[in-house]
Design a protein that fits this description.
The chain is about 25% helix and about 20% strand. With about 220 residues, the protein is of the alpha+beta class. It has a three-stranded antiparallel beta sheet with strand order 5-6-7, with helices on one face. It has a two-stranded antiparallel ribbon with strand order 1-2. A two-stranded antiparallel ribbon has the order 3-4. The radius of gyration is 22 Å and the shape is globular.
Length: about 220
């Protein structure tokens, strides 16, 4: 049981909400009504923005020293490996490995160039966390990315300037979201609506709009 997690199940026009379990009765025709079968969660569930910061404490509480992280098939197929705390990511790039220290150094607009210290740090953290034993770098590059206050993308027409379309804030996880976000942006420009499959997955235009940031700090560049 999880006393801190709620679950709501709808039964026709009614719903049942409970902090630890939910009950539902199935009739002969397969419909759900009343309250019978109990859904029980054997493990503690922690979710929401910033929850990765609690991971170390959760592992300590459970006595786990070598955790196995299970993800979805799409991410497995991508070959992307990332540290849960964010110090680096890497993925296969042909016969080589593309890696990054995932650094965020504030910068004015410029022709960004890789810093030797950041390259050395990337090699060090990756070698410490893996058995790759990286010894040399074949090529290196740097780029500028930007974030907004809530560190989520912005895609949509500006509510104050007609015809101005925002498509910013991909810093942090642009590689992972770029296919879906590109489709979302293109659809919003052409039709004003998101693709149906993205809506079905829970995305809504308001969560991408600039209006959600009203009163927040300005765009940050890195």
């Amino acid at each position: 049981m999880i006393p801190s997690t709620g679950l709501t199940i709808g039964a026709g026009t009614d719903s049942l909400e409970t902090p630890s379990s939910a009950s539902a009765q199935r009739s002969g025709d397969g419909s759900v009504a009343g309250s019978l079968a109990v859904f029980t969660f054997p493990n503690r569930v922690v979710f929401g923005r910033g929850t990765r910061e609690t991971l170390a404490a959760e592992l300590t509480r459970l006595g786990i020293t070598r955790p196995l992280v299970v993800t979805d098939a799409g991410l497995i197929a991508s070959g992307l490996v990332a540290d849960v705390a964010g110090p680096f990511y890497l993925k296969p790039e042909g016969p080589q490995i593309l890696c990054s220290p995932a650094d965020e150094v504030p910068s004015e607009p410029c022709d960004a160039r890789p810093d030797e210290i950041d390259i050395a740090r990337a090699i060090d953290v990756i070698n410490t966390a893996t058995t790759l034993d990286i010894r040399h770098v074949r090529s290196s590059w740097a780029g500028l990315r930007n974030f907004v206050a809530d560190r989520s993308p912005v895609a949509g027409f500006d509510d104050r300037m007609e015809g101005f379309f925002w498509f910013v804030g991909q810093g942090g996880y642009g590689i992972q979201i770029s296919p879906a976000l590109a489709r979302a942006g293109a659809s919003l420009v052409r039709t004003g609506e998101l693709p149906a499959d993205l809506i079905d997955r829970g995305l809504d235009a308001a969560s991408l709009s600039r209006e959600r940031l009203a009163g927040a700090t300005t765009l940050e560049g890195h």
